[in-house]
Design a protein that fits this description.
alpha+beta; globular; CNF1/YfiH-like putative cysteine hydrolases; hydrolase activity; about 240 residues
Length: about 240
């Protein structure tokens, strides 16, 4: 049994990407849970940094937690400051963690279709570069995301994309398509010519015993407030 399969056997396991080996990080499971995670699970002594996610293409460079003020609106962060644990929350959108270990820079992005199309992944890499990272050394990992087989969309949605993106849509019932969000995110990352891109291939919708899915909860008339956290920090 490989490490990923073994982790998935434990509902509370921390899921990690081999592409980010040596960098403290983790994709956490989350069934109807909104409680902030204990940073010690990823990086003992680290301070958790979160933003107010709004499905934007905005990425910030951070060097300290946001204290005593509302969290800024953004959907990605980058840091070169040890002791910070960057965190994003998702419930079908793609969580993407980045690291340039040589430069000592990490990043985290929340990439729903709007953010990915708008450039949130590119903005994250740009912020990392301003902190000294080199894209040829940046590795990225795509965590639990709704899979194409679970993501039905309509004609209006499909028309928001260019013809060159047609390969990310598969025709379904009349007027319906299946959209491949993780493949689209991977494509945007590969266009950046990073050192490595790892898609863990985990479907939030189908894995109901491990992940919260906003779409699944909506379809079932269940509570839709659950989220899962994806976290990354610099090695101590």
């Amino acid at each position: 049994m490989n490490k990923l399969a073994a982790a998935l056997d434990n509902p509370r396991a921390i899921i990690r990407s081999e592409a980010l080996g040596g960098v403290p990080h983790g994709f956490l499971t989350g069934i109807a849970s909104t409680a902030e995670p204990d940073p010690a699970r990823i990086s003992p002594g680290a301070q958790l940094v979160l933003v107010k996610q709004v499905h934007s293409a905005t990425a910030l460079s951070v060097d300290a937690p946001f204290v005593g003020a509302p969290r800024p609106e953004a959907d990605a962060m980058a840091t070169a400051t040890p002791g910070l644990l960057l965190g994003i929350v998702t419930a079908d959108c793609a969580p993407v963690l980045f690291a340039d270990r040589e430069a000592g820079v990490v990043g985290a992005a929340h990439a729903g279709w709007r953010g990915a199309q708008g450039g949130v992944l590119e903005a994250t890499v740009k912020q990392m570069e301003t902190l000294g990272a080199e894209r040829a050394n940046i590795r990225a990992a795509i965590g639990p995301t709704i899979a194409q087989s679970s993501y039905e969309v309509d004609e209006d949605f499909a028309e928001r994309f260019d013809a060159r993106d047609a390969r990310f849509f598969e025709r379904g019932e009349p007027g319906k398509y299946q959209f491949d969000l993780p493949a689209y995110v991977r494509h945007r990352l590969e266009e950046l010519q990073l050192a490595a891109v790892d898609d863990l291939g985990l479907d939030t919708y189908a894995s109901e015993d491990r992940f919260h899915s906003y779409r699944r909860a909506t379809h079932r008339g269940e509570d839709r407030t659950g989220r899962q956290f994806s976290l990354i920090a610099l090695p101590g």
